[in-house]
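Hey, I'm writing a tutorial for new members on how sequence and structure tokens pair up, and I'd like a real worked example in the thread rather than a made-up one. If someone can provide the structure for the chain below, I'll link this post from the tutorial.
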Amino acid sequence: MNKVEELVKNWKENVFNGNATYTDQKIAEIAINCISLSKTWFDNDKSKEKVSYEVRLYNNDGIMSEALHGITPDNLPETMMKLITNSNGLYSLLTLNSYMFVNGVKTDVNELGKLDIS
């Protein structure tokens, strides 16, 4: 099973709520885009230090309303897919950011990518 098939299968088993909003073709397209963006964003990361990653979610007013920590190259596509298909219009934008702690203070390192999800 390839990555797209695996992501779609996991989405159908764990996220799909019976809502027929998305056709199988549309879900496959979303999965392909999530995998591709995730790979591109992490491949372009030039952080030289050991950093952590988070997804920041912005509401429709452009205000950051939530941050999801523990993001990795392995779980970002699934996280993105869940947000795109199940956020019910709560968020308009997601960003992938790297950060680190310096002397106990969280410091932003880099914004690696943005995705309009409205």
